[in-house]
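Record type: ASSEMBLY
Status: queued
Input:
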Amino acid sequence: MLDQFTSMVAGFSLFWEYKAVMLPGLWYNFLVFFLVVVFGIVLGLAFSTIRLSTNIVLRAIGTFYTGLFRNAPEYVTLVWFFYVPALLLTKLLGANVTFEPLVVAVMALSLSSGAFYTEIFRAGILSVPKGHVEAARGMGMSRTLTLRRIILPQAVRQMLPEFFNECVSVFKGTTLVSLVMVPDLVYGVNLVSSYTGQALPLYTGIALIYFAIVFAMTTIAEKLSNPWRDKGN
Amino acid sequence: MPIATSSDERNVVVKVVDLHKSFGKLEVLRGISLDVHQGDVLTLLGASGSGKTTLLRCINYLEQPTSGEIYIDGRPMGFRIDTNGERSNSSQKDINSLRMEIGMVFQQFNLWPHMTALENIIEAPQRVRKLPRAEVEGFAVELLEKVELLDKKDQYPARLSGGQQQRVAIARALAMQPKVMLFDEPTSSLDPELIGEVLGVMRSLAEEGTTMIVVTHEVGFAREVADRVVLLHNGLVEEEGSPKDVIENPKSERSKQFFSSILH
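Status: finished
Output:
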């Protein structure tokens, strides 16, 4: 028992030994995380506006988007975008078409998280009571001024916890990119594990690493959102 | 007490002409006309569903009238007549600029919860009237003194009682120095012991000559403070006149029924 434990701890040194694979791998996780959060927020802002529009066609498009991507597992979305468009184009054009794995991964995960950001932003905006808007408009405040001064400050406060939750889940989701050949940390560990046969310390180690990162993120998120949340209560 | 008559030479602050408003098939206002002169306190009474609140919300264009005309201080609200006499909707900018002349107090207070009492009051004067912050803040402090809440100026609405919130809301509306104040059932969501403090503030505004249109169920307030009472029924003016005439000696059978139902 003790022997197993010491050998596992010793096995953790594999992360150091193979740092040439591991470190860039972790870097990929953060890169994908950053890009997906940025694109996801952009998509979320665009589609929440569309979802809140008075135009019925636009609203339908927004509902279709969120419905599709929120209800598809990220894994399936990722794999679909990796294989299907390339296959279709190859058939259509008769030439061998492939896409850069990183690009496909970021696109698929962004579309997926964008759908969640859309709903988070929309719910935040809708949480502001109509009367607060009427009080502002009734005093002659313009639509944009009302949005900026009355709606957004309240909506942002309301949506912060959900927003950070989604960011954390985007980070967790970045571990899926190894499935489409993006050399992230999981990919590196898979590689080293099959090379050295040391699955136990490697997968335990990676679990601990991701736990530490996500735990740190959650703690920071709480620290960031609490003072905001409390204002006015 | 000044009673508005057609020969009244004071400025007409709010003029409503043949106002109709429908929500889908439901016709809530069916042709209402009234004039409110400067310094008048007009109280709108009527059973729920009679159209009082809708009328008030049409005046500042929170509801768009189906037809009819509203003039604020002589300027048409929500429409304009071009040189050919054609009527068209006015721009959002024109609506905003007229709304600056109209203060509104809501049943649910509607203070902005992320701003302190003081910040609620200075927001619109500073950002809509674009007055210098120091001037706006000085006036806000005066207004808070008037509603006896200066000690609460840095409190957020959630820390204030309903009566205090409503008094801040009144100060917020007054801060724009509007030509007319609209009150939409300002005491209806207050606990009974808090109603008095809000009515007290409204009473002192009336005494200072503020032009007010008040939708209320407080018949006592109407009797003591109003210059004119208008009783609505089913989207039409059922009865109109001095509080004494309308409340104590209502002409129609329906008005008699209405007053006996709320007074007894």
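Annotation: The longest helix of chain A spans residues 19-51.
Annotation: Chain A has ten helices and no strands.
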